[in-house]
Predict the 3D structure of the following.
Amino acid sequence: MTDSSSQIWENVPSPFCGIASDDLKIQVTGNEIKVLANGDAITVAGFEQPITDTLPRVGGKTVTLEEAVAAAAGYLRDARLPLFSGFGTDVNDTRAALSLADHCGGVMDKSRAEASLRNLLVLSDTGWVATTLGELKNRVEVLVVFGSDIEADFPRFYERLIWNKETLFGQDTAKREIIYIGRPPSGNASTAPDGRKALVLPCPMESYPEIAAALNAVARGVSLQVETIGGLAVTELRAVIDKLKTAKYSVVTWSAGHLNYPHAELTIQQLCQAIVAINQSGETRAAVLPLGGQDGHRTASQVFAWQTGYPGRISYARGYPEFDPYHYSMSKLLANGEADVLVWVATLNARQTPPVVAIPSIVIGRSGMVFEQEPSVYIPVGAPGIDHAGHMYRCDNVVSMPLKKLRDSGLPSGAEVLKEIEMTL
Amino acid sequence: MLTKLTGGKVYDPAHGINGEVRDIWIRDGRIVAAPGNEQASQEYDLNGKVVMAGAIDMHTHIGGGKVNIARSLLPEDHRGDPVERHGLMRAGCGHAAPSTLTTGYRYAEMGYTAGFEPAVLPINARQAHHEMADVPLMDVGGYVMLGSDDYFLRMLQAGKSQEEINNYVAWTIHSSQCIGVKVVNPGGISAFKFNQRSLDLDEQHVYYGVTPRKVLQTLARAVHELGVPHPLHVHGCNLGVPGNMETTLNTITGIEGLPMHLTHIQFHSYGTEGDRKFSSGAAQIAEAFNRNKNITMDVGQILFGATVTASGDSQRQFANAGHAHNGKWVVMDIECDAGCGVVPFKYKDKNFVNALQWAIGLEIFLLAEDPWRIFLTTDHPNGAPFTMYPHLIKLLTNKSFRNDMLATINPEAAALSTLGTLDREYSLYEIAIMTRAGAARLLGLKDRGHLGVGAGADITVYTEQEDKEAMFAKPDYVFKDGELVVKHGEVVKIVWGNVHTVKPEFDRGPVEKDLNEYFDKYLTMKLDNFIIRNEEIEMDGRSKIIVHPCGRV
């Protein structure tokens, strides 16, 4: 239902769903947004998040933007080691945050860094053979999902990329094989249109490392001396590798956030090396698809990388960017008392709120945030893709989407606020 | 404001000026005629200095997905070259895959005022522009990659007319905001996705049944007929394969006289002679180049040291991954559009193959007769980081230095090379052609690369020195659009450059109708969101799009 004061937008990209679906139909009435078509739980919540605060607060008291900027600059001027985290941002918000952190010698971390490091450590240690959503959609015959519940984070993954009706190369997509290793899927998105369920090889998370290692060994033609590994029969693992080898194009995917245990990067590395081996055999092609990077996390990683050389966990404290995946973690710097101001930048997801801290906190956050602890300075801002134009990167890193301005909320952008703070310094 | 550069020794090959003492006047960012009685508000005494237009790097990987993968792949390389925040300059990192900010500062410090990213994947073009927008002090532009994209190969397979293909090529140039078209391993990136591990010039792609020769001819014709000034930019088949010289010679004859630019030709000039079945094809390649005036080329010189190779050529990069320095590498299949491969590399002077590659590049430079058709590149960072250009200039301008270096490389390679017998030394005038006037002419940049009235005032001033490496490493002054941005090797002002593009005329209706359906059915984004609008680039007030004219044939 629309009324005369409403505006309808077509082909709107979602900065929320992780795969940047850009077929949304959205209705805007004043500041109210309704997703009319092609929404999913995450996207609808992201777009329909109501504007609550429009005015900044300092110490819980409503102030003007100028006063809030001055207060934020004051904290940063006094800080010895400001810690920036959140991210949650589009390209311009990230650029402005990097510029400010560079200016005041801060550390840059991200709230999803722990998950993305599991992938990045593999990338910088051995690399991989990877693919993108468009190749997946048109080529994949066998998809192996390792230890991850894809549809929980990427609700439209199967609908848009696996059960698409047509492909460029005449494949019958209904015949695609989906294999889950580890946790089973939480829903039925992976079930084929004809009702065929995904094959699940269930095993506990503790077994993931050895199962990944066994898959790599089998892919390399090593003969294993045991019959079961991590609760799975070696014959089952061999059958998985055989399927990958007989398919013309197969993909192994995971969502690093779901591989939530110490040194999960070693598991990921085994999976990547298994795929390298299959490609090196010359028999066929295969690739990995590391998923993740929701809420603008991937966007922030990209901008971090091109402006500093490193995709995350950077300190400017010595005047140049230093990368340390261990020391520059937000939780460590908060726990050991090194950081003395927290700057939380999260302009996409109002639910991405900062942790409770014992130091002053400055939040440049999407309007609608509800805090467990009132920040020292809170400046509510608009969301890229809703309140102003912007750019985001999709989970496969390759595609970036233009984000549209859908309404005139009058909220400043995160980038504008961050620039103001830097100018005040 | 009127600025006068007084009494410098000017090298301006576009106007045939070879080291003559001239004054140059600048107003509002442009070079102007001597204004009669009016006094300059700022004057620089350039007595004894050498004046050239700002240098143009016509092939340098400065932005886009594969460059950012290279950055993420190489934390240890960044650690070796940390760049502190200093003066007006932001912090960053340098060496092989520098941060965008450091890229701009270091180019400017060497007197470069423009750089062109040669491998812009259509689907990743927005990222290339994002990164290039964060390169300060430089004009930028990109060549959009076609030739392994499903849509184009499908058109060829279906026997679509040249006119229809031209429309698609023009649409892609517009949508990606580029200034030229590049093809990388024609059809081969796509073939790799179908498990075809090599694709020679006349070999058929297993799925589409088309050959690289056909891809090259069709794209070269499209670019030519659309009147795009820069000829089709070709990274040929069989990069790095011993014996690929034959493929390259066949590529030259196969293009049937159409304009064609062969990039990083060094990597495509290998013979199979000798005990090791690896030899120099430089003489044959240079001979073909000298004879075929439709051919231009850049060298892609390798220089010794560690670097990273970042290429769209997933097929060849996968094949070469065994040579990866530190044993890590990335290969990607991308969106039924293209691919990429990023392989760290260390070129060693005592290694036979690397030493011969070094000699082959230099042989080509010295045997190619026309400096207007050959360009000075290392294919940054693939042959070496761009920061080694001054060293390369010294190798080209100083025979005794070159021979000293030759004496230190792998002796077997040195013995097989004719380099020691080549007496040529490039003159400053020829260097100015290769790095300025010729590059601007090749790309159709009418107001860059020269010092005539009306040119954008991108100007570099050097102190003439016997040691050309020292001379070209640290100019005295660099002006970008008339603003003094570098003084004695220090950045003194930050400005943001222009984005150079072409927008050839074409018939949008039919191509977009078909593409709309294609995007909706098969790709993962809407056509509407694929197209990069002007405001996306110009939105924040830093970059400005410049559209160069196309002369429709």
